[in-house]
Amino acid sequence: MWARWAWRTLTSMRTALLLLFMLALASVPGSIFPQRQTNAAAVNMYLADDPAKARILDRLGMFDVFGSPWFAAIYLLLFISLAGCVLPRTRQHWRAIRSRPPAAPKHLDRLPDHRELVSPSPPEQALAAGAEHLRAARWRVITTSGTLSAETGYSREIGNLVFHLALLVLLAAVALGSLGGFRGNVVIREGTAFAASSAQFDSISPGRLFSTTELPPFSFTLDRFTADFQRGGQQAGAPRAFRADVSLIASPGQSPQQRTIEVNEPLEVDGVKVFLVGHGYAPTVTIRDGAGDVVFHDSVVCLPQDAGFTSTCVVKAPDAFPQLGLTGFFLPTATVDPSRGPYSRFPAPDDPALFLAAWEGDLGLDTGRPQSVYKLDTAAMRRVGIKALLPGQRWTLPDGSVISFDGYVRFAAFAVARDPGKELALAAVLVAMAGLGLSLSVRRRRLWMRASPATGGGSRIVLAGIARSEHASAASDLDRLAAALHSSRPSPTPAAPPLHGKAAP
Amino acid sequence: MTDTALASLSNGLVYAAMLTYAIAMVVFAASLAARAPGRRPLAEPALGTSRRQGGVGVAVRDAPVPARSPVVQPAPGRRGGNIAMSLTWLATLLVGAGLVARGLSVGRVPWGNMYEFSVASAFAISAAFLVLSLRRDLRWLGLLVVVPVLLTLGLAVTVLYTEAGQLVPALNSYWLIIHVAAAIICAGAFCVGTALTVAYLVADTSERRVSRGSRFWGSGLARRLPPAQRLDAMAYRIHTFAFPLWTFAVVAGAIWAENAWGRYWGWDPKETWAFITWVGYAAYLHARATAGWKGRKAAVIALVAFAAFIINYFGVNIFLTGLHSYGGLPS
After folding, report:
1. Domain finish residue from B166, B197, B217
2. Domain with A450 in it: what CATH number?
3. HSE of B189, CA atoms in CB hemisphere, 13 A
4. Is B90 inside a domain boundary?
C-alpha cells in the first residue's frame, strides 16, 4: 500500500518539479567553492587558510559537490521519477496512436469553439469533402454515419517522450564515460618526451572499468612551444596564439611524424585525445659542489602565478652535501616593484631573471612521506642566501657550491583523455533536441463534424474542435475546414465508396 | 591588426544608439503614464469613495473600462508610443551598425569578449522585441524592453569596455560563432520573455485585486496592458522558442569544450550556471503543466531562471574564476 503511494508520489509532476528545484539549488555551491575535480590546488589552499570551517565544508561535500552522495541522490531520484512518469505515458500514447479518434460528442454546438454552416451538398458528400481536406492536411480521420472525428498532433507527445527518454540515455552515456574513460595530465618540457603509460602522467583519474593497459602505446616529444602575446594597448599581455610542435610516434617502431597541437586543435591517436591546456617556463639550473662536481642539472618546471607569468620555482638537490634546496621566482620580464617586490610585467621572455633563495639542511625526502615537487619543506633547513640571476650568471654560496642559471626552456601542459561515452551522449542530446522541438512546436487538436440533411436539400453542418495542448486553439483549423467545405461543390456522382468506420491509413 | 577608424566609428554608433534608446525610454514612459482610456470621467470621484467604502468604488471605477488594450482605444499615449517605437527601430539599427563596424574592424565575429557580447545581446533583446512587434501592437511593452537594453549597453561601455583586439587562443574556433550566437539570441528571447512575464504579473495582480475590490499601485499601468491570460500565453510562447535554443547553446558549448579541454562537461562555473538556468526554465515549463503551479507561481519560476541566466552572464565572469574567464575584463 505505502509502496504504491510512495511510487505515485515519486513519479508525480509535483515531485519532479521539486527535484528540479533541488537540483538547481544543489549545483550552486559547486560554483562558489573550489572543486577537487577541477581545481584541487584551490581546495588545498582553502583547507590551509581556514581548516576548521573547511573541514566542515569538506564533510558536507562542498568541495566535490557533483560527486557527492546528496547530489547523486537528487539526480537519481529525478531520473527514477522521470522514468516512472515517462514509461507509463509511452505505453498510453502507444495505445492512443493505435486507437481511433473519439466519437463526436452529441452536442457539438456546446463546445466553446464551433461553427455552423449550410452546405448545398448532401451530408455524405460534405463529410467526404471534409475528410479529404483533413487527410490532405495529415489528420487522422474516421467517419461514421453522419459524423466525422479527426485528430492531429500526435507527434507532440512523441517528441515529449523521446526527449525524456533521451535524457535517460544521456545519463547512461555520462556513466559509461566516467566508468570506461580516463583523464590524465602531464607537463612536458621542450626537448623531452612523453609515453602514454600511467607512470608518466603527473596525475591520472581513470574510470572504474578502465585499465591503463588499454592506453594506445603512443609517445611524443615536445620539440617547440610558441606563444604570442598582445603587445601594447589595454589588452597588453593577453595571449594571442599558442602552438606546440611535437614529434609523434603513433606506435612503437614507427617513424616520428611532425604534428602540432593548438588550443582548439587537439591531437588524436586511436581514440585518445591530447589537448593543450597550459604552458610556462622551465629555467635550466646547474649546481656544482665545492669540488666542482655537478650535483644537479635540469630544467625546472615553474608554476605560473599571474598574467605576467611570475612563476614559482623549487629545486631540490638531494645529492649535494649537505642537501641543498632552492626556492624562488622565474620572471620572464623581470621588474622590481618597491612595494610588491620582484614580479614579471609581461608573459613573454623579454628580460628573464631568476630570483632565488638557497636552503641547506635536510630536504626531508627520506621520511617516507610523499612530497610535492613544487614545494620545499624547509622545516629542517637553514637559509643561506638570496640572489637575483640573469641567464648565464653564477652564484657561489658560502660553502663553495656554485649555482648557475644556464637559460630556460618552455613547458606545455597537456590533458590526455578518452571518453567512450561521448558519441552516445552526443547522439542522445541530438535526439533529445529533436524531441524537444517537436514537443514545443506541435499542437494536438481534435475536430468533429456532423452533417445532417437540411430541409430543401443540402446539409446542415456543425463543426467543433478542441486543442489539447496549452494556449493552442483549434479555431484556425475550423476556419480552414469551413473554407474547404464551402469551396467544395456538390458533384453529380456519389462520392467515394461507403466510409463507415474506416480509419485513416 | 585592427582598423582603428572602424573601431571608433563602432563606439560612436553605440553611444548614438544609447542616446536614442534613452529618448525612446522617456517617451515610452510618458505614453504609459498618460491617462488611461476611460479613466478620467470615472476615476477621480471613485478614488475618493474607495477609501471610505472599502473598495466598492474601485470596482465601479474599473468595471466599465472597456477592452484594456490600448490597441483599439485611441489614447493620448498612442502617438507617443509610435514615436518611441520609431526611435527603438532607429536605435536598434545604430547598435546593429555598431556591431558590424566592430566586426569589420577586428575581422571576426563581434562577440569575442564581454563588451562585445553585451552590445550584441542588447541588439538581440531589441531585435526580438521589434520582430514580435511586427505582428502585434507591443508599444505597451516598450519600456520593459528598452530599460534592460539601456542597462546592458551602459554596463558594456563602462565596466566591460574592451578595446577592439584579436581573440585569445581559447576563443579561436568556429564554435565561437555558433555557441555564442545562440547564447546571444537566447539573451534577447529570455529578456523579452522576462519583460512579458513581469507584465503578466502586474496585469494578473491588478485583475485579482480589482476583482476583490482592493487597490493596487500597478492598476493604472495594468490598464494599458493586454489581459493577463494573453500576456501569459505570449510569455509562454517566447519561452518555448528560447528554451530549445538555450538547450542548443549549451550543447554547442559542450561540443566545443570537448574539443578544447577534452571533456564535454566539467562543472566549470559557467557550465554550472548554464545548467542551473536550463533546469530553471525546465522547471518553468513543467510548472505550467502542474496543478497548483500554473500561472503566477510558474511566472515566478521563469523570473528566477532569468536571474540564473544573468548570474551566468555577468556574475560568473566578474566574481568567479573558471575556464570561461576570458571576458577581457581587467583583473
Report:
1. B166
2. 3.30.310.80
3. 19
4. yes
Residue A315 C-alpha, separation from nearest chain B C-alpha, in angstroms: 30
Q: Do A20 and B282 touch (CB under 8 A)?
A: yes
Number of domains chain B is built from: 2
- Assess A426–B contact: CB distance below 8 Å, yes or no: yes
d(CA A163, CA A432): 4
- Measure B149 CA to nearest chain A CA, in Å: 26
Q: Across the interface, do B169 and A262 touch by the CB < 8 Å criterion?
A: yes
- Among A22, A36, A228, A264, most B C-beta atoms within 10 A, so best to mutate, is A264
Range of A359's domain? Answer: 182-418
Quote the minimal CA–CA distance from B240 to chain A in Å: 6
Q: Do residue A307 and residue B331 have CB atoms under 8 angstroms apart?
A: yes
The boundaries of the domain holding residue B311 are 167-331
Task: Mark which residues 167-186 of A lie under 8 Å from B by CB.
Answer: 174, 183
The position carrying cell 568541495 is: A63
Q: Are residues B275 and B151 in the same domain?
A: no
Q: How far apart are CA A424 and CA A178, in angstroms?
A: 13
Nearest to B28 by CA among B69, B93, B88, B74: B88
Residues of B in contact with A305 (CB under 8 A): none
Contact list, A433 vs chain B (CB under 8 Å) = 244, 247-248, 251
Q: What is the pLDDT along chain A (505 residues), one digit of tens a residue?
A: 788 888 888 888 888 889 999 999 999 998 888 888 777 778 888 888 888 888 898 889 899 898 899 999 999 999 999 999 899 999 999 998 888 888 888 888 888 888 888 888 888 888 999 999 999 999 999 988 889 999 999 999 999 999 999 999 999 999 998 888 888 889 999 999 998 877 788 888 888 888 877 788 899 999 999 999 988 877 788 888 899 999 999 888 889 999 999 988 999 998 889 999 889 999 999 999 888 899 999 999 999 988 889 999 999 999 888 899 999 999 999 998 888 888 999 999 999 999 999 999 888 888 777 778 888 888 889 999 999 999 999 999 988 899 999 999 999 999 999 889 999 999 999 999 999 999 998 988 999 999 888 887 888 899 999 988 766 778 888 999 988 887 765 555 444 444 343 333 3
**B227 and B154 within one domain:** no
Closest CA to A474 of A444, A438, A504, A449: A444
Residues A117 and A79 in one domain: no
Q: Establish if B59 belongs to a structural domain.
A: no
End-to-end CA distance of chain B: 24
Burial of A505 (0-12, 13-18, 19+ CB in 10 A): exposed
Residue A292's region, left for phi above 0, alpha for psi from -120 to 50, else beta, is: left
